[in-house]
Structure formats: structure tokens, C-alpha cells
Amino acid sequence: MRHCEFLLSGGSLRGLTNGGSGPIVLGLHGFLDNAASLACLAPAFQHYQFIALDLPGHGKSYHRPAGAHYNQLDYVQDIHELVLSQGWQNVFIVGHSLGGILASIYAAVFPEYVSGIASIDACGPLTLEPDTTTEQINASLLSRLPKVGNNTGASPRIVNLESAIKARCQTTDTREAHARLILTRNIKPLDSGEHTWSSDPRLRTKSTLRLTAQQAENIMRNIKCPVWIGGASDSFKQLESVYASRKAWLKNSRFELFSGGHHFHMVDPGAVGASICQFVEQM
Questions:
Q1: pLDDT by residue (tens digit) across 74-125?
Q2: 24-28 and 49-53: which strand pairing?
Q3: What are the C-alpha distances in Å from 153 to residues 28, 89, 279?
Q4: Has domain 2-130+210-282 been given CATH number 3.30.200.20?
């Protein structure tokens, strides 16, 4: 995999690509991950142009300007700007977690640009009940306010990679080798020889509003392309039951259950990649 870069109106969107010349397969990673979490699937797409992106604020991509924040629909706009800028048609999107949610929204809103999607440990948008609206807005706005006493000119936070890897493994089901791949791409060197985060700390602020179940249904019913959904036996997402409740919202879908946790595609990329590639070739 080699570096790739696309200039959007907001800044540079970076990622990793296999440099192929076939149809476009676009990889969208999960929350607080980056392109490194999807690079493992590249061997399955050797006959395609596989591009794993760093979403804005993640990995090596640009940060949104001061005063801006990170909302799901803004990511969808970024994806569409990228697709238009490159003149892509019939894009197949592989998304993990947040990336799978974005793939489903994009496929519904701009169906003419998407040939199909593969959603890894995600089955459409996350939802909350309408009566949580006020609570959501309150939590979101408070999370975005500058902390009292914060010095905007303060030195960047020093990151110890080994400590960050250990913390990630303790709080998630990510394996050490996989956490290392992801976090190595989420840090950058300082002149001192130390490292700081390259990802934007504003990613940890609360979402403004989650969609309701009715809105999620509307989105999923408007997906016209074939949808592959992969769930994990030990993931907190419990996708098998989620898919069972939402299957009727999709026109053409396939569900496969794999062993492992939330990053099961990194544990067995051969099996996951082969399943997705077979799905693409049978569409």
C-alpha cells in the first residue's frame, strides 16, 4: 500500500491505496481509526483500485477549521466532494463501523454513484428515541465548549505510543498488533523527537443529534444497490439481531457472521476480503 492524497475544499484528504487501475473500491474506517485498519483487505482487491481513506480529523487527513465540528452528514459531504472531484462512477464502498454507517447514508442519498456497499459490523445508522432530543443537544453543546483554564497556545500533548496501545487494548477488544497499526498512523513526530496526536481531539465531542429509528428506516429503504453486511460473534454491536430487525428495510442484502470482535476484519482479513470480493463479483 502506498500514500495517496486528494485536495478537497477543506484541505487534504489522505489515505492508502494499492495503486490498482480497476473499478474503485473505497474504504471508510471506524471512529478514531484510520486507513491502516482497512489496508489489510487490499489483497482481496488486487484487480480493483482500492483506496482506504483517513476521514477528516483522523490519521493524516486535514482537521476542520476552528469553530467547526465533526458530524456524520459532514463526512457524507466530504465523500461526495471526493467522488465528484475524481469523476468516479459505480463506486463500491467498504465501511467499518462508522464507515459502514456513512456508506449506507451515502448510498441512499446519492444512489447513482454507488454500485454496492459492504458494511463491517454496522447495519445502518445508530438511533436514539425522539424524547432524548433535548438531552442530546445539551450534552453535545457542553462537550464542545472550551474547558475552563484551557490555554489555546499550550504545547501539544505528548503521546507515548506503547501506553496508548496498552490503553486501547484494555478498553476495547482490539488486539495489540492491530492497535499498533492504527495508533501509529494517528500520531506525528515533534521537533523534540517526541510524538503527539495527529488526530483531532474534537473527534471526542458528542454528536449533535442521533437519527431516530424512523429516519434510519427511510435511509435504508432508499438504498438501491446490493448490500453486504458482516457481523462478529463477540462484538458489542450484536449485529445478527440488528440485521434481523432491519433486513426488511433493504432491497437486496446478504448477512455473514464471522468469529471475533469489533475488528474481526483485521483478525481474518483473508476470509472477510474473499467474502466481500465474491459479493462484488456476483452483483
A1: 999 999 999 999 999 999 999 999 999 999 999 999 999 999 999 999 999 9
A2: parallel
A3: 33, 44, 50
A4: no
